[in-house]
Amino acid sequence: MNTLYLYEDEATSKIALMVSRMVGMGACAFYESPPSWQRYGQVVLVMGERGDMLSSLPEWRDSLSGKALILLLTAKTETREGLAAVEEGLERSVAASFFISSENFLEDTIEAARRLKALWPEPFADEEAVQAMEDFLAHHNTGVLTTGSGHTLRATPIEYVFVGQKLYFFSEGGEKFIHLYRNPRAAFTVFDAFTDTAHLGGLQIEGSVRLLQPRDPAYQAAAAAKGISEKRLAAMAVVLHGIELTPQRMTFVWSGFAKRKQPLRQTWCIL
């Protein structure tokens, strides 16, 4: 469902924009000129200490009926007066409220966005959707592997092979291994070139990484699946280093879901 963020002033508009970006599928508007309510299933009120929007709440009661309602309140110190005033004005309870301190603005705003995302989880992929993800991987062979540690990131275009629900990569070496020794986690994305919204395909994967030696059975199986023979490996002047990525979370945006009358974006993860 789409989310509407209503703000009061410059400070609350900044919060609304930041949270909308982090949560996704949202729009921001000044409280005195809200857009069509029918386009939104969830409404987030971003209110400051003055509570300018409180006077508008009674006239919104009917429009907000049946919609999930969240309050983000920003001030120097946290009190329950703002929440009580909102619920009195609407004559209903809000689903959740989060406080954003003006003195810890950035981290409080990020935490509020995280908690909002937890309230509205993405559709969880069923077996059919997971099979669509695996088929997508099986019909592609190149993507972007992202590794990182500290303040440094590396995005590497790289070929892969998908064997036994895991992804395998081969590389002569490079900076990505510095990151993988420090942080054995990676993200990987595979996608189709965009043509139009009726032909979308993009898969994001996050997971744990294991570095493989040539004598490892998993290395040998992946090399065989990729068509790299033992003879060719033995003849090489340098070693091809193996990387095994075990998916722990996959998010798939695929137009095929829409044809099944399912959400366009679905997520699978290890619970």
In percent terms, what proportion of residues is strand? 25-35%
Distance between the termini: 23 Å
Structural class: alpha/beta
Total number of strands: 13
The CATH superfamily of the largest domain turns out to be Electron Transport, Fmn-binding Protein, Chain A
Helical percentage: 25-40%
Number of helices: 9
Count of folded domains: 2
Q: Radius of gyration, rounded?
A: 24 Å
Which regions are unreliable across 5 or more consecutive residues at pLDDT < 50?
Answer: none
Can you identify the CATH class of the largest domain?
Mainly Beta
Quick tags:
Rossmann fold; 271 residues; 9 helices; alpha/beta; single chain; eight-stranded antiparallel beta sheet; elongated; Pnp Oxidase, Chain A
Structure description:
The chain has 271 residues and is an alpha/beta fold. It folds into two domains: 3-119, Rossmann fold, CATH 3.40.50.360; 127-269, Pnp Oxidase, Chain A. 32% of the residues lie in helices and 34% in strands. It contains nine helices and 13 strands. The protein has helices at 10-23, 57-64, 81-90, 105-119, 127-138, 175-182, 217-226, 230-235, 255-259; strands at residues 3-7, 26-30, 42-47, 68-75, 96-101, 142-149, 152-159, 161-163, 166-171, 185-191, 201-212, 241-254, 265-269. Strands 6, 7, 8, 9, 10, 11, 12 and 13 form an eight-stranded antiparallel beta sheet that branches. Strands 2-1-3-4-5 form a five-stranded parallel beta sheet, sandwiched between helices. β6 and β7 (152-159) form a beta hairpin. α1 crosses α4.
